[in-house]
Amino acid sequence: MKKLFLWLFPAVCLINSNRIIAQSAHISEKQTPLITYPFSDPDPIPVTGKIYPYARFEGYSAKGTIHEWKMVELENDFIKIWITPEIGGKIWGAIEKETGKKFIYYNHAVKFRDVAMRGPWTSGGVEFNFGVIGHAPTTSSPVDYLIRTNDDGSVSCYVGAIDLPSRTRWSVEINLQKDKAYFTTRSVWDNPTDLEQSYYHWMNLGVKTAGDLEYTFPGNYHLGHDGKHSPWPTDEKGRKLNFYENNNFEGYKSYHVFGEATGFYGAYWHKDDYGFVHYADYDDKPGKKVWIWGLSDQGMIWEKLLTDTDGQYTEIQSGRLFNQAAEGSSKTPFKNRGFAPGSTDQWIEYWFPVKGTQGLKYAEPAGSVNLQQEGNTVTLGFCPNEKTDGKLEVRNGNTPVFMKEIHSGPMKVTKESFKFEGSYNSLSVWLGNKRLYDADREKYLIKRPVESPSTFKWETAYGHFLSGKEQERQRLYKTAREEYMKSLAIEPWFVPALTGMANLSYRSTDYRTSMDYSLKALSVDTYDADANMIYGLAGLALGDTLSAIDGFSIASAGISQRSAAWTAIATIFLNKGDYPKALNYANKSLDFNQLSSVGTQSKIVALRKIGMLKEAAVELAKMEKRDPLNHFIRFERFLNNPSAENKTKVKNQITGELPHETYLENAMWYFRNGQFSDALKILELASQDQPVLLLWEGYLNH
Question: Which stretch of DSSP H or E encloses residue 91?
């Protein structure tokens, strides 16, 4: 026993002296009681327009009752995160464990209020918005979700849904590693349709306002929803808008901060010596926004409307575009973007606390930095998010003026001060050979214009086309048509406007008119990729397979349509039962766009039909690793092996608000790809109390 003790003792000491060896990440599901003010009274008729086929809700309770909410908890030694699959899949809150302080606002009251596109909305946490405008139709309803412990010891919760108006599909993996003081969100957004769709995505995060809050948002302008720009962080009247308390004037505030090429932003509560950080690569998330309810009664009334005991909050948001473009923004450089047909986007964001640095200047996943100079004294604070061994330096130009060797774990802060009589802007902070922070931010300011030319003529064919495209990308199809027609009245052969009209006609199922407009466009430019794509789609809808192959083949020469065009040709051959050719075109699509879900799905079906079941299983496993909430995975396994176990897996994983729509969307994909019996089998899996499913099932049976 003595020998055994002597053998174990060093290992025990090592574990106790170095927490990193014993680190682990855990995930669990619990029922959490929260006082809840429910919503009710859905409109029996879905709202036509941007959010069809969703209905609005008109009933909101003034009295709260305790309700048990499903809560997914992710936790390691440093942070803890809560996720609510039944309320939009939002991250409900997060804390830094050593201090117990929240770096993401946790609302102890679920107060649904009429704020979102469909009405009900709750404050706090991190809200996921995909579609055309916030707050998304799924923000307060159940979504699909699953939890997973990964091979590397990290844990993940996936949440996602179909945006039914556009038929795009989104999912977010919330991942927590065992040895990091940050969590990540990996978003996958997929446009499986043959048309461009609206493109709007923002993550809305709530933080508390108390504690001398400073918004650390790099940039020199802020943009409005109308695209107009104003100075940041100090406005024309000398007010430092980056401090919450200095916004005690006028009403609501919406600052889309712009001007520096960085995906970093943060918030710091100086009285608490504590803060929050968001980081993403600039190409993934160039948009950053501050939302303030307003410090007058107009805004402060929302404190009681949205919470009971947690106090006022503010939102800080990350976006795929520079601003949330609204009316007026279209006449500035800051327009809306479109979601290319057949494409899949993916990006990663980091979210983490910072403490003990007496402020925040910059951060990245390695850690957070504060560097301040008062007189001839410089103070440095560094809060790491991971195990850190190396030389922490402050340099004046290329010359070190301070150096310390650090060996630290996550959230173990280094604070130092030293004498320096030079210019603050010449300083930079380094960890090893990597620069963490450069005090001279002027060199990072971008040159991108913030105003459109005053002499640009909007009443031209091109001007009206731009206006029409903006309307189309916001799902305002009636006004888009009006603008395209104004463009064609000025220039009857303006190809972009002709293609725009072809697209709108196709959306309204007027396929003959869509074909006519596309042929007019091709009579001007036979190689125009967009015109060829809609020519192919119109031909396919009219049963003219030759025109479809002709259009898609020439469209594939254009980068913007290549992947979608090759997938469309794969669809034609799947319908013909020519599975080797379908496989060839699916592979061509994937060679160009490896993330394409529709290309992968076409490939898997072709492999199954050819009898290459092992190869199909390999592709399904790859898809499941990257995007496990894609229900095609479980449908395809059921179709290959219709066992009771596979049937149960299909049913158990569809947890969203309108499950019949998930069955219908997937069945229609098989139907459009010529797999009628597969489509029928999927519909038969669904609950038989939905009239639209029964109609389709009857149609496929006859």
Answer: strand 90-96
* Measured distance CA(81)–CA(262) in Å, rounded: 26
Q: Measuring CA to CA, how many Å separate 491 from each of 87, 182, 248, 500?
A: 50, 55, 51, 14
CA distance 613 to 493: 50
**395 CB neighbour count, 10 Å cutoff:** 17
User: Prior bond to 120 cis, omega within 30?
Assistant: no
Residue 540's nearest CA partner among 504, 560, 570 is 570
Residue 215 parent element (H or E): strand 213-216
CB within 8 Å of 353: residues ≥ 6 apart? 79, 94, 96, 101, 103, 181, 274, 275, 276, 277, 411
Of 153, 159, 129, 272, give the one whose Cα is nearest residue 208. Answer: 272
Tokens, residue 128? 């996921």
CA distances from 235 to 230, 240, 241, 328 (A): 7, 7, 7, 22
pLDDT digits 0-9 by tens, 427-436 = 999 999 999 9
2 band by pLDDT with thresholds 50, 70 and 90: very low
Q: Do residues 681 and 639 make contact, with C-beta atoms less than 8 angstroms apart? A: yes
Residue 20 has pLDDT above 60, yes or no: no
Structure tokens at 216: 């650390």
State the Cα–Cα distance between residues 330 and 344, nearest whole angstrom.
25
pTM, full prediction: 0.94
CA atoms of 490 and 468, how far apart (whole Å): 14
Distance CA 80, CA 60 (A): 31
- Which residues, in sequence order, are bridge partners of residue 159? 145, 172
In terms of Cβ atoms closer than 10 Å to its own Cβ (0-12, 13-18, 19+), residue 398 is exposed
C-beta of residue 340 within 8 angstroms of C-beta of residue 224? no
Report yes or no: 516 and 544 within 8 Å, Cβ to Cβ.
no
| Residue 376 near residue 388, CB atoms below 8 Å | no
How many whole angstroms from its chain centre is CA 321? 11
Nearest to 255 by CA among 284, 234, 275: 234
Largest CA distance in the chain: 97
Q: Which amino acid is at 211?
A: G
pLDDT digits (tens, 9 = 90+) for 552-611: 999 999 999 999 999 999 999 999 999 999 999 999 999 999 999 999 999 999 999 999
Residue 308 and residue 34: Cα distance in Å, rounded?
A: 11
Cα angle 644-648-649, degrees, rounded to a multiple of 5: 120
Phi, psi of 171 (to 5 degrees): -150, 150
